[in-house]
Amino acid sequence: MYLLYLDDAGSVKNSAEKHLILAGIAVFERQAYWLQKGLDDLATGLGHPEPGALELHANAILAARKGSWWRKLTLEKRRAVITDGLKSAQSLFPIQRRLFGVVVDKNARSPEDPVEYAFEQICSRFDLFLRRLYHQGNPQRGLIVLDKSSLETRLQSLASEFRTIGHRWGTTPNLVDVPFFVDSRATRGIQYADLVAYALWRKYERGDGEFFDVIGNWFDSEGGVVHGLHHYRNQNDPCDCPACVSRPY
Ligand SMILES: [Zn+2]
Predict the structure, then answer these.
(1) Which end of the chain has fewer CB atoms at under 10 Å, N or C?
(2) What is the model's pTM?
(3) Could you tell me which of 75, 80, 69, 122 has the C-alpha nearest to residue 98?
(4) Contact, 145 vs 5, CB < 8 A?
(5) pLDDT digits (tens, 9 = 90+) for 151-193
(6) How far, in Å, is the centroid of ligand 1 from the Cα of 229?
């Protein structure tokens, strides 16, 4: 089985923000332990008194608000924590570690709900990956794991409807159940997804590719076509991101 840990970035309602992002990492079940261990080791190396309780949440790491433990570290060090966190998945087998991400320009998709669009796209692309494995003689099922606090209400209702009404591209037979919602503090997999969503956010919303460049080649792809990263934009907006270069409109 493959577990797809997902988290979101960007607000649906905040019109000052252009994008809505849903992104994360799919890992083979036996690799989930190593994903967790990579981030545990990173947290342990930071000198926190209770590294197991130190949540790696990109916004909190960079903001280092008053009273936050992150204030003990310089901004440069905190940025390195995010980079090192993303790099921690590098040691997993590439076929057993695939990134997925959907970036939606909210205005370009308006008036459609960007959350619904992003969720359908992610599910469809994860299912496509599992179908490809099946045709390679490796039948695997998939399970989506979401952060409890991420767009909770909307995603939860979408998730519960998902198995019964399917999505616009048909059903996703390889997904075993409705997505599970978990507390991000309890699983490093969701924390890794948060880092991926944040890396996409910095690239697309802020034009800062520092974090994205660490993981840019890890999105699901086959034969040079990037399936795992999707950028929905106004067709008149030029874009040279890997998704648009691979699959131009
Ligand atoms: Zn693009």
Answers:
(1) C
(2) 0.94
(3) 122
(4) yes
(5) 656 777 777 776 665 566 566 777 777 778 888 888 999 999 9
(6) 9
Distance 231 CA to ligand 1 centre (A): 5
Distance 102 CA to ligand 1 centre (A): 10
Q: Which domains does the chain have, with CATH numbers?
A: 2-246 (3.30.420.10)
Backbone angles phi, psi at 188, to 5 degrees: -70, -25
Residue 240 CA to residue 169 CA, distance in Å, equals: 27
Query: In angstroms, rounded to a whole number, what is the distance separating the alpha carbons of residues 84 and 130?
Result: 28
Question: What CA–CA distance (Å, rounded) separates 92 from 73?
Answer: 28
CB of 10 within 8 A of CB of 21? Answer: yes
Q: Where are the alpha helices (DSSP H) in the chain?
A: 32-44, 58-63, 75-87, 106-109, 114-135, 152-165, 188-206, 212-215, 242-246
Side chain identity at residue 142, one-letter code: G
Q: Give the distance (Å) from ligand 1 centre to CA of residue 228.
A: 13
Could you identify the residue written with the tokens 């409109």?
249
